[in-house]
Write a structure and sequence with these properties.
Number of domains of chain A: 4
CATH class of the largest domain in chain B: Alpha Beta
Helix content of chain B: 40-55%
Distance between the termini of chain A: 22 Å
Strand content of chain B: 5-15%
Largest sheet of chain B: 6 strands, mixed
CATH topology of the largest domain in chain B: Rossmann fold
Strand content of chain A: 25-35%
Number of helices of chain B: 21
CATH superfamily of the largest domain in chain B: P-loop containing nucleotide triphosphate hydrolases
CATH superfamily of the largest domain in chain A: RNA 3'-terminal phosphate cyclase domain
Oligomer: heterodimer
Strand order of the largest sheet of chain A: 1-2-4-3
Number of domains of chain B: 4
Radius of gyration of chain A: 20 Å
Number of helices of chain A: 9
Strand order of the largest sheet of chain B: 3-2-1-4-5-6
Largest interface: A-B, 30 and 22 residues
CATH topology of the largest domain in chain A: UDP-n-acetylglucosamine1-carboxyvinyl-transferase, Chain
Structural class of chain B: alpha/beta
CATH class of the largest domain in chain A: Alpha Beta
Structural class of chain A: alpha/beta
Radius of gyration of chain B: 34 Å
Chain lengths: 342, 529
């Protein structure tokens, strides 16, 4: 049994990210883990339900032992067992992000022996978390290119407060990740604006897309309303996607009650314009999601803007688990992350 | 950590369904939407007619809180606003529910349900039928309407709130002060007893028996208990006190229980009696051991059933009173001798407090002295105070273990009165004190032997029988009894008592002599032990 790794949960971003990344890697690498001072700097410190769900899900995959997995707990000890592929079902309470749970349990299952089918329930389009579409069309194509065999299918979108979203991941185990490079901002090959409206008036989608066309001058056929009516909860998200030859960026804005549809469009347009003017291939969100696969691949590089706190936190945590050197080269507003095994 | 179990009632308005339900605050559903509050199990009670809504709420709950198990409990309420019906059904639920407080932490959710149901839940939680804290949800502020609002947990165990606890302590020490007549007593045993009496006085309406030697302050304490109860509105009626030793003879019955006009010669009009005077109040029977057996029988009925027969009356009278009793002797002996009814004794022996004599609480002499001085000043309008040396002299004597204080506070009070009266110009000087000390010494010197003999005899014979004895017999019998108590057998006691005269006898039968001597007073070996 390898030595226990101790992570100070209050460092860097100091929230759930540090917990998710370290649990995923601890399970994958079979490394006992102690995370202390969990969310120490936050207004309500300690474990919240969404974090509990995440650490318990990881423990379930590998028959691991957990101590301190309670609400408000400031320290969790995790002793992982062997990761087992198979059928899993994870539900996230409080309509919390099921996408974040996917991005956590993905790594142990991807390298385990055998294939897995995992059902995720909860929120699929949450503020402060990548929406399902981002995972499916920005994140997944990159790791597939690196060798991962994963497919995702959305059955139903889930929004705050009702949740009730559901998607299924088919993950082929025994993966070996190959390094790749994403350092060049290749031409834009397609654009798409999607206004997703569930159990709310369809006019919201129309208004959002009209404003997108006004602000970005995208074509009519590039703007798609997706309006659904069922017994679930209400929700709205505007997704603005630009695809280069080898990488995509999706800006997403969750519509909330007090925010007019035109303002939703304006916020999204501003974000996608920033990505375009930055002229880097990898957007800020994707940049932090790619730290783990690039580290596990033991090589590769990508260019993004100045790294966010999430990204540097992931870099720090990955450095604790893997013998990897990550070099950051800054050129103007662009930063290139180069990964190399030690 | 214990897992959290919430017991609540479905709100058929607040939790109602429909297509717009996710846009509204629903108290029950929103319990499951807090990131920092995880419910292991929800026991959801609902009116049997709301089954469809309950099922939907369960489904929605599982969606927002997949960690939670939801159990539905349909209850066939005819009228959810009917207190009796709702309380009864919730009481049944609480009684049949298997609470496991070692593993689970219970919260009773009172946000939903009719006001009547909320009141019932509160009452059942306060009475610990639900061993739970209360859980109250409040809706979110308007500007963040999609938030689940706030939760407040209310513990009905008031001792858990520091500020309230200090408030109660103040109130309690005020009660202690009432019971102690405002005297800052220092004796720990006495103060501990006062704290117990305070609790009993405020929580129980059962009889209280105050034991202790004459002058220990039983009557004053009885009055103070009444004052305390009265101040908290626990009694509405009067304080009625009587010394049972004064109730001898034929008039005892009618004094206590009253009579009707013409009940006997001289009964020219109705007399209500003390029992009725104490209706809704407190009746203090001092020296209760002196009460005759007939009166005891009637008293027992009055205590147990609240009814009694006035002398000469055809029908029963009623009085709802609280009984305080005082005695300076051990009533168990009286019971053994058949002078006191065992059933009545059992009835008044529930709360028994023994007041220590002044000799056993000498540290309280000084505060009592100041109290008596203050009382004198108030009564006469003339301020009286000690000289410093005089005070020292008196206290040195008073707290000396050799001072017996036979008459307890009565002695102290009398000494105080005499000194205050004799004080020249309101100053008690050393001369006044030394005169008083001489007086006390004389009094105790003469009272000591007789009072010892008296105590021995009253303990065995009772006061009335003792009073019928000649002084000559009292001394002799008391000494014989004391001798018997030092011996293991009747024969041994006989040998000790007749040690000289037996030498002259060929066949000394000391045991028989002693037995016959005791028999003259209606006593045997068992009695005197």
């Amino acid at each position: 049994m390898s030595e226990e790794l101790h992570i100070d949960g209050s460092e860097g971003e100091g929230g759930g990210q540090i917990l998710r990344t370290s649990f995923a890697l601890a399970a994958h690498l079979g490394r006992p883990l102690r995370v202390s001072k969990i969310r120490a700097g936050r207004p309500k410190p300690g474990l919240r339900r969404q974090h509990l769900t995440c650490v318990r899900a990881v423990a379930e995959l590998c028959d691991g032992t957990l101590h301190g997995d309670e609400i408000d707990s400031s320290e969790v000890f995790f002793e992982p067992g062997t990761v087992k592929s198979g059928e899993y079902h994870f539900s996230v309470g409080t309509a919390g992000s099921a996408c974040l749970v996917f991005q956590t349990v993905l790594w142990p299952l991807l390298f385990a022996e055998g294939d897995s089918r995992v059902v995720f329930e909860g929120g699929t389009h949450n503020p402060f978390a990548p929406p399902f579409d981002f995972i499916e069309r920005a994140f997944l194509p990159i790791i597939k290119r690196m060798g991962a065999k994963v497919s995702l299918s959305l059955e139903r979108a889930g929004f705050m407060p009702a949740g009730g979203g559901r998607f299924v991941a088919e993950i082929e185990g025994g993966c070996t990740l190959r390094p790749t490079d994403l350092c060049e901002a290749k031409p834009i090959v397609s654009r798409r604006a999607t206004a997703l409206v569930a159990n709310l008036p369809g006019t919201i989608a129309i208004r959002e897309l009209r404003e997108v066309r006004n602000l970005l001058h995208w074509k009519n056929e590039e703007c798609l309303p997706r309006v659904t009516q069922d017994d679930g909860g209400p929700g709205n998200v505007l997704l603005l996607e630009v695809a280069r030859e080898d990488v995509s960026e999706i800006a997403s804005v969750i519509g909330i009650r007090s925010l007019p549809a035109e303002d939703v469009a304006a916020i999204g347009a501003k974000a996608i314009n920033k990505y375009l003017s930055d002229n880097v291939p990898v957007g800020a969100c994707l940049a932090d999601q790619l730290v783990v696969p690039f580290a596990l691949a033991g090589g590769g590089s990508y260019t993004t803007t100045a790294p966010s706190e999430h990204t540097t936190t992931n870099i720090d945590v990955v450095g604790r688990f893997c013998a990897i050197e990550i070099t950051q080269t800054v050129q103007g507003n662009a930063t290139t992350m180069s990964f190399a095994s030690l | 950590m214990k897992s959290t179990v919430v017991i609540g009632i479905l709100g058929n308005q607040l939790d109602r369904g429909g297509g717009e339900r996710w846009k509204r605050w629903r108290p029950t559903i929103d319990l499951g939407r807090h990131e920092d509050f995880l419910i292991e199990r929800l026991e959801l009670l609902h009116n049997a007619s709301d089954g469809a809504l309950a099922t939907q709420v369960r489904q929605d709950m599982l969606q927002v809180s997949p960690e939670t198990t939801v159990n539905l409990h349909p209850i066939p309420w005819n009228d959810p606003w009917d207190f009796e019906e709702v309380y009864g059904s919730l009481h049944d639920f609480a009684r049949s529910y298997k609470f496991d407080t070692a593993r689970e932490d219970y919260l009773v959710h009172i946000t939903t349900g009719t006001h009547v149901a909320q009141i019932c839940l509160f009452l059942l939680s306060e009475s610990r039928h639900f061993p739970a804290r209360l859980l109250q949800a409040t809706p979110p502020k308007r500007r963040n309407r999609s938030e689940p609002g706030t939760l407040v947990q209310i513990d009905l165990d008031l001792s858990r709130y520091d500020k309230l606890a200090s408030r109660f302590r103040e109130e309690q020490s005020a009660s202690y002060s009432v019971l102690k007549s405002g005297i800052a007593t220092k004796n720990q045993a006495f103060n501990a007893m006062i704290e117990q009496i305070e609790r009993v006085a405020l929580r129980s309406t059962e009889a209280v028996l105050l034991m202790g030697p004459t002058g220990a302050g039983k009557s004053q304490l009885a009055r103070r208990i009444y004052d305390l109860r009265r101040s908290r509105e626990l009694v509405k009626g009067d304080f009625v006190a009587v010394n049972c030793a004064t109730l001898k003879g034929a008039s005892a019955m009618s004094t206590l229980f009253g009579h009707v006009k013409g009940a006997y010669t001289g009964a020219t009009k109705d007399r209500p009696g003390l029992m009725r005077a104490a209706h809704k109040g407190v009746l203090f029977l001092d020296e209760i051991g002196e009460l005759g057996l007939d009166e005891q029988a009637m008293l027992l009925r009055a205590v147990e059933d609240g009814v009694f027969h006035p002398v000469g009356a055809d029908s029963v009278a009623k009085s709802d009173f609280q009984l305080l009793a005082g005695t300076n002797r051990d009533l168990r002996d009286s019971v053994r001798r058949g002078e006191f009814r065992e059933d009545l004794y059992a009835r008044i022996n529930l709360w028994t407090f023994t007041l220590p004599g002044l000799a056993d609480r000498r540290e309280d002499i000084e505060p009592n002295l100041d109290y008596e001085l203050g009382k004198w000043t108030k009564k006469t309008g003339h301020a009286v105070a000690f000289n410093q040396e005089a005070r020292r002299d008196f206290l040195a004597f008073a707290t000396n273990p050799k001072s017996p204080w036979h008459g307890n506070f009565r002695d102290l009070n009398a000494a105080m009165t005499r000194m205050a009266t004799m004080a020249p110009g309101g100053r008690i000087n050393r001369d006044v004190v030394s005169e008083e000390l001489a007086r006390l010494r004389r009094a105790w010197a003469t009272s000591t032997p007789t009072s010892n003999a008296e105590q021995v005899l009253t303990a065995v014979l009772g006061e009335s029988e003792t009073s019928k004895l000649d002084r000559f017999d009292r001394v002799q019998l008391a000494d014989a009894i004391v001798a018997c108590r030092t011996c293991k057998t009747l024969s041994a006691a006989g040998r000790l008592l007749f040690s000289e005269s037996r030498k002259k006898k060929a066949k000394p039968n000391d045991a028989d002599r002693l037995r016959k001597y005791l028999a003259r007073f209606g006593l045997d070996w068992e009695h005197v032990q």
